[in-house]
Amino acid sequence: MTKRVIQNGSSIGPYSQAVVVGDTCYVAGTGGFLPGTSQLVEGGTEAEIHQTMKNLQGVIDEAGYQMSDIVTVTAFLRDIDDWPLFNTIYSDYFSPEAAPARAVVGVADLPAGANVEITCVAHRQDAVR
């Protein structure tokens, strides 16, 4: 099986934004960075969650998948009290009837002082290779 690497210029370390192997796309931790930079969007947690979801969608699109192909999500929140806000914004990106499995974890800190980070796995039988 071949491995296809997705890079969009927003990573802040030596890793790929996503790796596609077979019919599965593995997306690295994605945060609220301005596209193509290592600078967090201004505006606090709400703005970061919106930008994180947009960035996640951008990586998924670039890999040839759709948000509906995502089967599992892990989200990391610097303040677990932001969970209701996260849910509200997150629900704009996924149909309640077909939402992926998900875990949300409260953490002490995130790279670059971010307030949110999301990683996911997407799968589909007719994936672009």
TrEMBL record:
Species this protein is from: Streptomyces griseoruber
Q: Which PANTHER family match?
A: 2-IMINOBUTANOATE/2-IMINOPROPANOATE DEAMINASE RIDA, PROTEIN HMF1-RELATED
Query: Which PROSITE patterns would you find in this protein's record?
Result: UPF0076
InterPro entries from the UniProt entry: RidA, RidA_CS, RutC-like_sf, YjgF/YER057c/UK114
Which NCBIfam families does the annotation name? Rid family detoxifying hydrolase
One Pfam family matching this protein: Ribonuc_L-PSP
**Single Gene Ontology MF annotation:** deaminase activity
Q: Report what the protein is called.
A: Reactive intermediate/imine deaminase
Q: The organism sits in which domain of life? A: Bacteria
What is stated as this protein's family in its record? Belongs to the RutC family.
The root-end lineage is:
Bacteria, Bacillati, Actinomycetota, Actinomycetes, Kitasatosporales
Q: Look up the record and report any one GO term of the cellular component aspect.
A: cytosol
